[in-house]
Here is the input.
Amino acid sequence: MEFTLMQTVVATPELARSRVSVICSCVGRRMVGRNQIDFGPARTALKRRSASSGLRSVRAEMAAVTLPSSRSEGDMAHPVRLFVGLPLDVVSKCAINQEKAIAYGLRALKLLGIQGVELPLWWSIVQPESSATNWSVYLALADLVRRAGLQLRVSLHLHSSAKPAVPLPSWISRIADANPDVLFTDLAGRRSHDCLSFAVDDLPVLNGRTPMEVYEDFFLSFRSAFSEFVGNTITEISVSLGPNGELRYPSFPPNSENHQSGGIGVFQCYDKYMLANLQKHAEEYGNPLWGLGGPHDATAYNQNPDTSGFFRENHGSWETPYGNFFLTWYSEQLLQHGNRLLSLGHKVFGDMPVKLSAKVPLLHNWYMSRSHPAELTSGFYNVEGRDGYDAVAAMFVRNHFAMIVPGFDFADGFNTQGSLSDAELLLSQILEACHKNGVRVFGENMSLTKLGIERIKRHLFSDASPLRSFTYQRMGANFFSPEHFPLFTDFVRSLELPELDADDVLSNMGGKVSLPIDAASGNGSNRLMQPV
Here is the structure.
């Protein structure tokens, strides 16, 4: 089916609401390169008309996206599923935020042909206290998505967020107040509240229970509560592995994002549990003095590598025997943590009719330097002569997880504050590791820009694209703004439609559906739901 969205915004004050009409007709299929594209129940093209007397009309022809992607010419069995992320603050403790606007947004996405939405589900909202879990608000939202006819990718967030402000559960924070060493700590003694230290995964520091035991109960509770949605509405479950849900240490400055900070980061190994682990490893290695702490010459988040003795391009400590010892241990702790959570996720969800996934970061700052400091401080031992992503990919495939990789909207040579960044080369390295190990790849973007959309299209149209699923981040006022939503609509349309004349669309005027446009556009109070 083909849907044409006719949007009328009336400027006169006596007309408080505008409406959207959807007109249906039939479509077929075509080829893009070697990728066969099957047209679903809706498809999209956005065109603007001139306005007079305060009247403006916007028409969008809507289309579903099913892009078969393959690594070889003959593999046509795996369509690329297109999702859109819901706002990070879509749910508060007691309610669905901007519920009416969310409902209109879901309907707009369905008409556009989007397959589903990604739901960020926060541990602290469900289990603010240790005694019980309360899924009621998220169950209501899942039902809203189901009634909209969309699928759901659920992201189980075990971490906190600075913006929007979502802390760790209150009972976890009280434990951390009494025992701050359950949190990651840097050389200066600053504590990170992003997530629990990986060193306590199997230690009974949470009122006599281990974090892994608590996570398992949380997963089991989710499985039980959402059983009626699994396999029909819920088709994918993503497990949080660290800060921002990603497999990494919280090595960047507080309230920063790894793709925006130009710094190198700082090692997070100074809580007493990490130090005890390091000391034990050094003693087994035969050099106890190396276990007294992390590198003493890597101390500032935002310094240049050449001002750091450890990360200096030439003759830096990172390429000494001590550097190799420390970086091997540090990266291994990250891998062990990831393996524990992925194996737990497979244990709880592996027999369910859902796809399992988890996210890695795109740590592109200083990627073109020899020492790759931003990756090293985050736990990826990726330097000249050593692939820091091969073992990560092997861990994912061993546990039957797909890898979520962000940054498909970054262009060649993307550079942050002169930091020798190359997001495209790093993305290629990660994808190569996935290809080598047979890991399914799910993609995400990190910005809402026209150039970013063009870059995503290049990846999706590539004959060698490894993508099996793509989640466009994220829904909100900016997403539905006049500056962005037409770009997104054209993006969806471009994935499968040849150019159509307006008369082709308007030839069939049956099957109209009406929606108030103000909720979907992000005007007025709806802008409150826009996250970072």
